[in-house]
Structure formats: C-alpha cells, structure tokens
Design brief:
- By secondary structure, this protein is an alpha/beta fold.
- The protein contains 10 helices and 16 strands.
- The strands form 4 sheets. The chain has a 6-stranded mixed beta sheet with strand order 1-2-6-3-7-15. Strands 10-11-9-12 form a 4-stranded antiparallel beta sheet, with helices on one face.
- A hairpin with a 2-residue loop joins strand 4 and strand 5.
- The longest helix is centred in the first third of the chain and has 21 residues.
- It is elongated.
C-alpha cells in the first residue's frame, strides 16, 4: 500500500506543469454567473479532456431552470470511467461558474496569471483550481492503479453561485447523485488543504413587504408610510430577534467562530420612489416597502422554528401597530447538513492529509451553503464532503488566487483517497 501511495504522489509531482496549465485554461473561459456565460464551452473543454483519458461523456442541460435560455444554456458535463472489477463509485463534483470579476484587480481576471507561486484569476480559488486538482488526481490514479475496482465520475456543473438549481439540483433530481450510481462525493471547494468540510448551516431567504397608503408628501398624515412600518420591523429585529439569535449556539464545528451562532442578514430594502427614477423625486408617501433577508441557522434548529420567530414578530406588530399590514414569501430554503467524520469518504481523505501534510485534518462546517445541500436533500446521499485547495477568504475577492504548491498537495490527497476507496 505504501509503495503505491508513493508512486501516486510521484506521478502527481510529474504532472505539476499540466496541473498549472489546466487551471489557467479553465480560468481563461469566463463562465461569469449571472448571466451564465460560456457554460457550454467550458463543459466541452472538460469533456474533451476527460474523453481522451477513457471517460464516457454526457452533457445535460438544466432545461427550464432559473436563467436557462438558448443564449445562456445551463450545460453540465458528467464523465464516468468504469474500473476493471465491480465496486463503489467516487464522484468529484466542481461548479464551473464564477462570480463577476468586479473592480480592484491588478491583473487581468481571466488571463490565468502565474506569479510568485500562485495562479491569479476569477475562479482560481473558487473553484477551478479544485476542479483541475481533481482531474489531475484522477489522471495520476489511472496511471498508477489501472486495475481499480468500481467507477470514477467527474462533473462540471453550473449555477452554484446562484443556488445550483440548473446544475447539481437538476442532476440530483434525475438520479445522478444517488445510489446505486454513486457512493461517495468529494466537492473540491476552497476550504484549506488541511480541512475536511462535513457540511453547512441551513438558510432561509425570504421577502417581507409592508403595505401603506399613498398621499402627498406635504401631508403625510393623509397617507400611511410603508417605510415607517418597515422601520418598526427593523426596531423589533434589533431589540428582540438579534439578541435571541446571538444566544443560539451550535456543536457543529462551524468556521469562523462568529458563525457558530444563528445569524440574520438584511440583504436589501426597497421602498417608495423607484430606484431607477431620473430627476427630482415625487412628493409621495410610500405605499410599499420590501425587505430581503438571509437567515442562517443551525442543525439544532428546525425550519418551522426559524420561520415562526419572524412571523411572530410580524403578527405582533399587526396586533399592536395601527395600520400595520404585511405579506411574507419564501425565496429559498436550505436545510443544514453534516456528514459523519467516520464516513468512508471522510476517513479516506483524512488518511491522505496525514500522509501528505503530516497532520490530522480539521473537520469544519461551512457558514454558507454549497451544492452538498442538493446531494443530501434530493440525492439522499450522505457520503458527501468538501475538500480542495485554496483559501476560502479569497473567494469572490479581487486578485483571487490559488497557491500552486497547495494545489499539488491537495491533488495528492485526492489521489490517495481514490486509492483507499477503490482498491480492489
């Protein structure tokens, strides 16, 4: 076993230049989401690369999912290679979409610039570096252990940055992330090379609208300001909800420490004058005000409890405040998930980390969600973790980068994990 592991790691070292080149070429395809640019080009690049290494390739469009159109098709690629004998299937899943580059860059965000041992570019860290690492890990494994048992899959999926509904969610509904097809899933998100991420907190996105009555702004007493009603909601949140959330703690190993409690972020507030107006504002009392909120919660909480905390405040204001009328609607629901650290996929990666880095891994939970939510909820597959190169804090930042040495070491860990899970 040790001899094979050493050969695996040596093979990865020999593929270092190919790993760097592959990462740069992936970065150079600007798969910006929204709106979902160049998905098909990127999926076909991945498919062509893997087909040359013996994989069967399938392209699946997330038809009629949010954002899907003929101009911006939600094109996913799934590659599969069968082993010599029956066994389990290990699936590496990476999202190919990246967020908008934004301002503040000192290099071209889609050029794949190599500097001081790092590869710079939008998506370098989140997560084209991880995708490339998984592809090279598989290439090294195939060269070293050609007679493996089971099957290997690699997917490049879309829209993770906007919920994953055209990607992993769509595929999970169709059985691509369920047994007996798949047994273990590794998502190479950038969570530091010595960490195994077991899952994430839950989330509820919603919209509250307070209602009012329009009137002339010089005589506001003849109207009813929806913005003032929303101010009463904000006041209740500050006085009651935020202190209650701060007292809710979790035993989940969430990072950073501030996310070990329940949180609420007010994403946006819109009311009164249309934001796109040009010129001087009209003298009107606002008859509508809308709040978008993002409530992140713990595995110890239920969705029913989370929703009731907010609706009880709104119902209380309805009873106490004259003219208070509201509506509330769901935007998105995400349930918390946590894979057991004693699951085979966790243990295989832990062995690899010990071999490569000489340390036991940290087991963490992500404060935000990623595509594991769909694999757990829709695929009913528990053996799913995130592990990959890159520093999470760099994601979505200007001058995003991934360290080349970190990529090499993470690639070795993934290759080792493959060997432990697919040894005949």
């Amino acid at each position: 076993m040790a001899e094979i592991i050493n050969k695996l790691h040596q093979r990865v070292d020999s593929l270092k230049d190919e790993l760097v080149d592959l990462t740069c070429r992936l970065i150079a395809i600007p798969t910006t989401n929204p709106p979902g640019e160049n998905y098909t080009e990127c999926a076909q690049f991945i498919g062509t690369w893997l087909k040359a290494r013996g994989f069967e390739i399938e392209y699946v469009r997330g038809v009629d999912t949010p954002g899907d159109s003929d101009k911006y098709p939600r094109t996913n690629v799934i590659a599969r290679r069968e082993g010599k004998t029956p066994g389990q299937c290990v699936h590496f899943n990476s999202h190919i979409d990246v967020v908008v580059a934004g301002k503040g860059w000192t290099v071209d965000p889609f050029a794949g610039i190599i500097k001081n041992g790092k590869i710079y570019g939008r998506g370098a860290c989140d997560m084209k570096g991880g995708l490339a690492a998984s592809m090279i890990a598989v290439e090294a494994f195939l060269a070293t252990v050609p007679d493996y048992a089971g099957a290997i899959e690699i997917s490049g999926t879309v829209d993770e940055e906007t919920g994953g509904y055209g990607g992993v969610a769509y595929l999970a509904q169709k059985g691509y992330f369920s047994k007996p097809r798949v047994d273990h899933v590794i998502i190479p998100e950038p969570l530091n090379k010595d960490r195994i991420c077991l899952g994430h907190r839950g989330g509820w996105w919603g919209e509250i609208e307070t209602k009012g009555r329009i009137a002339h702004g010089s005589m506001p007493f003849l109207g009813d300001s929806a913005i003032r009603h929303m101010g009463a909601v904000m006041s209740k949140f500050e006085d009651e909800l935020y202190p209650a959330l701060a007292n809710k703690k979790t035993d989940m190993p969430v990072v950073p420490d501030g996310a070990k409690q329940s949180t609420l972020n007010i994403n946006s507030i819109h009311g009164g004058e249309d934001e796109n107006f040009d010129g001087l504002p009209a003298a009107c009392v606002a008859d509508s005000c809308r709040m978008i909120f993002d409530r992140r919660f713990l595995i110890e909480e239920s969705m029913t409890e989370v929703k009731a905390e907010i609706t009880s405040i709104l119902d209380g204001l309805t009873a106490q405040r004259e003219g208070f009328v509201y509506s509330i609607k769901d935007i998105n629901e995400i349930y918390p998930t946590m894979t057991n650290k004693d699951a085979d996929v966790s243990k295989a990666l832990a062995k690899g980390i010990k071999e490569v880095l000489g340390t036991d891994p940290d087991y963490v939970i992500s404060p935000g969600s990623y595509d594991q939510k769909h694999i757990s909820r829709l695929g009913h597959l528990d053996n799913c973790v995130a592990y990959g190169p890159g520093i999470l804090d760099l994601a979505h930042q200007p001058d995003e980068y991934v360290g080349i040495d970190d990529m090499v070491e993470s690639t070795k860990v993934m290759a080792s994990a493959l060997h432990y899970l697919l040894s005949p």
